[in-house]
Amino acid sequence: MLVMLFIWACALARVAYEARVDQQRQSAIVNQGWTRQIMLNLRSVARQPGQVRLVAQRIEALRLDMYRQLGFRTNARTVVWQDGRLVYTSAPGPLAGTGWATWIERDAPTGLVVERSEQADPAWMFTPSAARYLLSPLVYSLPFLLLPAWLIVRVGLRPLRAMVAAIEQRSAPDLAPLPASPYRELAPLVQAINALMRRLSQRLEREQEFLTDAAHELKTPLSVIQLNAHLLGSAVDERQRADADAGLKTGVARATHTVHQLLAFERARADAEATPPPLEDLRALLRDRLALAAPLAMARSIDIELHASAPCALPLHRESMAALLDNLIGNAIKYSPDGALVTVRLEAGAGRVVLRIGDQGPGIAPALRHKVFERFYRVPGQDQAGSGLGLAIAERAAARNGAVIRLEDGEGAGGLTAVITFNQGEPAHASNP
Questions:
Q1: 3-class SS at 150?
Q2: Is the Cβ–Cβ distance between 356 and 344 less than 8 Å?
Q3: Using CA atoms, how far apart are residues 151 and 256, in angstroms rounded to an integer?
Q4: CATH architecture of the domain with residue range 279-422
């Protein structure tokens, strides 16, 4: 409708302009004809000066009466000279306004000069009859435009209404993808809805998986806590009370560790943020996490060496990266014998950053290195306490930070080295402090 109104307004402006130009041209032609007609009538009475004025007045009165009957209004002025003397003028004074057309006729034998000026009147375009003439095409065309438009919109939106009805009929847990639309215009909408449903399904599956894992893993420590709490209440001597108290503390510690690991695992596999992560200095982060792990290493006389020559700025999710470092450093300390050495190396160059964390523990057989990244998997024969989530957390945290993690043989005799590779281009280095 707006486009149609705009086109109609442009057409109206063009019609008005052309009508004005045409009216001015027609006024000039009519003015020329009237001037010649007046001259022809005045020639017959040119020898009678009194009649010249009378004939000019009658012709002007006849013109006014004719235009009045036609309903046409115009401004005109007629001036007659004879032998240089003014004989008649219908409107004394100068011409006012614009758009005047003037024509002069001269007759040398009689000495008559007739000058007639007429002004075109554009007011006819604003009369009711002109408005009806100009608006009628627009008014008559509206039903023929609105009815097809209504039908087209109604038919065109039918597939969308069917899609809405199909979604409304679904139950809350039903996140199956919508069938592909045969209409090219609706295909992107269906794809976007299906992508959203996939993300929601994955999130719900993760939440269900988290609840299942929590229920499974917390069942044993909670049973231990319940049993030892019962034993503590029914103990009859100090030894039984001490054993029950130790078992209770062990159960609480295991439950606490399991909860922390489950939460860390869930955070590590969380969806990536829409905005890119900020730049973090990996060397500074390593120093912070090693400082937190130092008391555990000192308690067993384990030395930790950090080899990082310069700051290394990378886009990192600080929380997940801290969980990755805590798990790998903690595993290296836990599985190393007393008095051992844990080595941490940060290497940058060739468009990538490599972090190596090596221990001197028993290591893991190559055939089992891919399985230890599975949730709750523990190497057979392992006597160290744990939940089997540490490496799973590390792997997902590495993926969230654009890195990959793999396990290799340790440096020297025995041990294991965790290698984290960041393929994110050259890191930003700062000057050494």
A1: helix
A2: yes
A3: 66
A4: 2-Layer Sandwich (3.30)
Q: How far apart are CA 261 and CA 386, in angstroms?
A: 10
Provide the residue type at 148 as one letter.
P
Q: Give residue 76's pLDDT.
A: 84
pLDDT tens-place string over residues 127-158: 676 677 777 777 777 777 788 888 888 888 88
**Over the range 219-243, which residues count as b (16 or more CB within 10 Å of their CB) and which as e?**
eebbebbeebbebbeebeeeeeeee
Asked if 37 and 59 count as a contact pair (C-beta separation under 8 A), the reply is yes
| Calpha distance 373→369 (Å, rounded) | 8
CA angle 394–396–402, rounded 5-degree value: 100
Rounded Cα distance between 117 and 35, Å, is 9
pLDDT per residue as tens digits for the range 151-197: 888 888 888 888 888 888 888 778 888 888 888 888 888 889 889 88
* Class of domain 187-268 as given by CATH: mainly alpha
Contact 111, 98 (CB under 8 A): no
49, two tokens: 């000066």
Comparing CA positions, the residue from 358, 334, 333 lying closest to residue 347 is 358
Q: E strands, 108-251, where?
A: 112-119
Question: Is the CB of residue 313 less than 8 Å from the CB of residue 281?
Answer: yes
Token couple for 242: 């001490």
For residue 292, give both structure tokens. 């937190």
The whole-angstrom separation of Cα 139 and Cα 61 is: 41
Asked if 418 and 394 count as a contact pair (C-beta separation under 8 A), the reply is: yes
- Where do the domains of the chain lie? 2-126, 187-268, 279-422
pLDDT beneath 70, residues of the chain: 71-73, 120-127, 129-130, 209-221, 254, 257-258, 260-275, 375-389, 412-413, 424-433
Alpha helices in 115-156 (DSSP H): 128-156
C-alpha 384: how far from its chain's center?
A: 52
In 275-399, beta strands by DSSP E: 279-281, 303-307, 313-315, 341-349, 352-358
d(CA 58, CA 72): 19
Q: How far apart are CA 301 and CA 295, in angstroms?
A: 10
Q: What is the pTM of this model?
A: 0.48
